[in-house]
Structure formats: C-alpha cells, structure tokens
Amino acid sequence: KKREDGPSSCYLLKDMKIIPQCDIKLGHLHFSKTHTVLVDVDIFNGGAGLIPQDGRDVWHNDFVKMPYSQSSHMKTGYTKQNNTVRWEVIYKQLRSLSKKTTASVKDLEDAIIKYNPKYKGQWSFDALSSLVKANPNGDNYSPKLFQKIAELALRLPELVKKAIPLLKRGHTAAITLSQTQIACLLANAFFCTYPHRNFSGPKAEYHNYPSINFTRLFGNSSFRKKQKLRAIMHYFQQVTAKEQTGLVTFERRCLRDTELPNWKNCNKKMHKLHVASHGTIENEGKGMLQVDFASSWIGGGVLGSGLVQEEILFIINPELIVSRLFTEKLGDKECLIVTGSQQFSNYSGFGDTFQWKDPHEERLNRDQWARLQRQIVAIDALHFKHRSEQYNMIDVTRELNKAYCGFMGHRTHEPDIATGNWGCGAFNGDKQLKAVIQLMAAAQAKRGLAFFTFEDESLKQGLQQTYHLLVTERITVDKLYILLEDYCATPQAYGSEHVDLFELIRINFSPRSLLWD
Ligand code: AR6
C-alpha cells in the first residue's frame, strides 16, 4: 500500500477502505429474535417494495408505547369513566389542523396542549414562532408545512403496525425500519404525541431514555435553535413532498466481558492510519464507519440547545433522532450503530456559529437492503469535569473497551473508521491520550483509522510522528498499555505538570541512537 512521503508512515485518504469496496454480501433481508424488521420481508425480498409489517399494538415495558395505543388514556373528567383514549384527541386535533388553509404556530400549540394539558402555560413555542416569522415562505418553511406534518403523523397506525422493541441495556438487538416509517415517527415527535415521555427525573418510567417529544426544541428562542429548526423543517419539507425509498437499521451492540480484549495481552501491531488537519468525519470520511462523539443519552442535546459534533450530525441526518425513541442510555460496553440514514442538510460553523446552509444532495448508493451506504457508530466518551481526572487505568480501560466495542467488525471486509478528537471537546479529554486509545482499539479491531484533527495542526504532526515510530519499532498494543500504566502512575501526569504523552512514547520507544539527536 502506498503511504505518504516523508517521515510519516501514514496512509493517504484514497487508500482508506470505504463501504462500496467492501463487497458485503447481505443476502435476503430477514428478521430474527434479535432483529426486528418493521417492513414485510417477503414483499421486500420479492422486489415489491416497502410495505409495513403487520402486527399489533403492545402496551408493555419492553416496547415503545405508541400514541395510538388503545391503552393510552387521558383524563377528560373527574372520574375514570370519563377517561378518553388519547389517540382520539390527538386524531381530532391533528386532523382539524391538517385541514386548515393556514395553520399558525399558535394553532400548533393549541393542538399539542389539548393532548398534553398538564403543560399548558409551561411549554414555550417562541423559537418556532421566530423561525416562521423570519422565514414565512422561505427555504425552510412553506405555508402548508404544519398541515403536511400533521397528515404524516396521523398515518402512524397504518405505517407502524408492528410493536417497536426497546433497545435495552445489556442486550444486543437491532431494528430495521423504512425511511417513511421514521418520518412518520418523527412527525409524531414533532407533535409531541408520545405518551409517558414528557416526565424526567429518577421516578419517571422512561428516566433511562433520551427525550423524544420535540417540546424543548420549540422554546427558548436563540440563534442556535433557529438554525436547528431550519434543518428540521427542511427535513419535513423533503419527506412530505416525496416518499423516501430506503431502510435504516439501528443496532445496539453490547459486549460481554468475555468478548473484551485483555489489553495487557494484545500483541497486535498498529493498523492503517490517515491523519488530516482539514476536513470532517462526515465529508472526507464518507463511506467509512463514521464516529459519533456521542452522549450516553443518544443524540445528547439535539432537542435542546446542544450544537457540537453529535447534535450537528443528528440535525443534518434527522433520521438519527428516532433512535431516541427506543435506545436506552448506553452502558460502558455498548454502542449504537446506524446504517442507512440520509443526510438532508449541509451546514457551516460549529456551536454558536453553526448555520444551516442548504439542502444536501445525497449521492450515496444503497446496499442490498435498500440502505444508503452510510454507517455511523455512536460511542460515548467519559465526561471529565477536571482534565486531571482522566489519567487512571480504570478510565483508560473503559475508553479502550468503549472504542473497541464501536470499532470491532463482524466480517473480514469492513470499511475503515473516520474519527477525530473523540471526547475532547465538551467532554474535556486529552487529545493525545484519546488518539492513542483509539489507535490501540483500531489495532485490536484490525481496522484502519482516518483521523481528522479539526484544524489542530500540531496534533496532526504529533500523531503522524508517533504513529511512524510505533510502526517502525513494531510496537504492539500491550506495550502501549503498559506504557499508559506508567503514564497514569506518574504524578506529573496530573495538573499543570502534565507530561506530553507523545513525548513519553518518543522517549520510551525510540532507538537509543535517535534519542540523542
Ligand atoms: N469532524 C471531525 N472532528 C470534529 C467534528 C467533525 N464534524 N466536529 C467536531 N470535531 P465534541 P465530545 C472535533 O465536543 O467532547 C455532545 O453534546 C472538535 O475538535 O462534540 O465527545 C454529545 O451529545 C471538537 O472539539 O465531542 C455529548 O454529550 C471535538 O471533535 C458531548 O457533546 C470534540 O467534539 C460529547 O463531547
């Protein structure tokens, strides 16, 4: 394989393996005990399209409680006899909204509050109002859009008939559903129809799940919210204008202790590495397994004010948001892999400077299961309040296991991985330490890394030199692990006396003759 010229042993971007080169043979689409498919697989395999799989509503702790369930009631009077099936209220409200010639944000608010009466006066819609005011007929909001989203939401009983299992902690399981089903589920999130999902706090039934109803996105107007709403409205504009034609799979992967590497005993050498200071995971890393710098609550602050890597990813690929409906908070040995989601928007900026730019033209091909060739893996790093907290082997091993869980492949032909400063922004990680951890996990998983340093030139150079040394000196993962043990045991690793890990690697692994140059 061709490597870059000069002192680095790094690879060029074009030498990284992407999904289309992997020639993955999926065979027929099939369901199993651990893989729920929400479309009819026989019809799909027969080439006759995406028809919802038959099924029945299940009001149970192991499944998503659906807004149309006959078991979902709301109080409309003082006695039990006066309880109404909640969907009847939702249906009436959304139907009448969908029939209006013009529907304002106030109409939307009134409808939503009718079936969420507890929140009258508490939920604010000012961010949505300000978007609509600023952009009455613009790119992101067309006059009939609310009506169209309401119509889409009302199709839920017809589009999603089979119960959706919750992807629970400790269980490896997957769900495949059509992009139209996702759009309909998200239209319901937009209209805040999901029962039992508005409470938070330790006693709430879904306290271990991220929020899904869009309430928080609509209030507390700010520049950030407005840009996020532009992307969301653009998504709904697209999916209500034209039916989407593919499937998306959400897989929760949970490793057993026996599947975790014994890091002290790993004799794997470094795998491929490409490092770049320019470019992003989603653009330059197209076709690779793209790392989502996640929160254990998948999607993080996407429905609130958060707007860093994960939230941006979810905002430009809104189908990812539906994972919040069924993915329990990730545990230490777990990740979520999403295959086939579509990018709808382009953006510029980051955090406070983030702006919706324009519609994204999707050019990716689809696999045998009609999924776009985009694969995203959500792995949540540890959040360190103080940077000094991270230099201990319990946390280092936790991060190694987490990265390995996300990076390991099922087959021999898997794409390489696009990543970068995982855990090193909002979560305060040490960039050098996290880069070494990811290199070790990728080596163990036998997959290449494309590492985007996000304009950090010195990290790029340091990582290239470190990698070069590790490759030329044939340093194995166990050797690095032992070095990290020493590193964490050194008092200088804490606080202001912080030792540069790349420098320590240089001192420890360079041939003696080179050290004194
Ligand atoms: N491509 C490559 N690198 C990037 C990109 C990109 N598109 N975007 C950012 N970076 P951060 P964390 C770099 O803070 O520390 C969210 O709220 C950039 O250098 O998003 O793991 C989640 O929901 C940035 O500083 O990740 C979690 O709650 C660095 O990656 C939490 O943040 C880290 O990005 C995760 O925080």
Lay out the secondary structure.
Blueprint: H1 19-22, E1 35-37, H2 41-45, E2 73-74, E3 84-85, H3 86-99, H4 105-115, H5 126-134, H6 145-154, H7 156-159, E4 173-178, H8 179-190, H9 215-218, H10 223-241, E5 247-254, E6 273-276, E7 289-294, H11 309-316, H12 323-326, E8 334-339, E9 345-348, E10 355-359, E11 375-380, H13 393-407, E12 417-420, H14 431-445, E13 449-452, H15 457-472, H16 477-489, H17 501-509, H18 512-515
Parallel strand pairs: 1-4, 6-13, 7-11, 7-12, 12-13
Antiparallel strand pairs: 2-3, 4-5, 5-8, 8-11, 9-10
Helix pairs in contact: 3-4, 3-6, 5-10, 6-8, 6-10, 13-14, 15-17
The chain binds ligand AR6.
The site of ligand AR6 has 24 residues, from strand 7 and helix 11.
Task: Explain how this protein is built.
- It is a single chain.
- Helices cover 34% and strands 12% of the residues.
- The protein is α/β, with parallel strands linked by helices and 517 residues long.
- The strands form 3 sheets. The protein has a 9-stranded mixed β-sheet, with helices on both faces. A two-stranded antiparallel sheet has the order 2-3.
- Strand 9 and strand 10 (355-359) form a beta hairpin.
- Helix 15 packs parallel to helix 17 (501-509).
- The two termini are 30 Å apart.
- The mean pLDDT is 94.
- Bound molecules: ligand AR6.
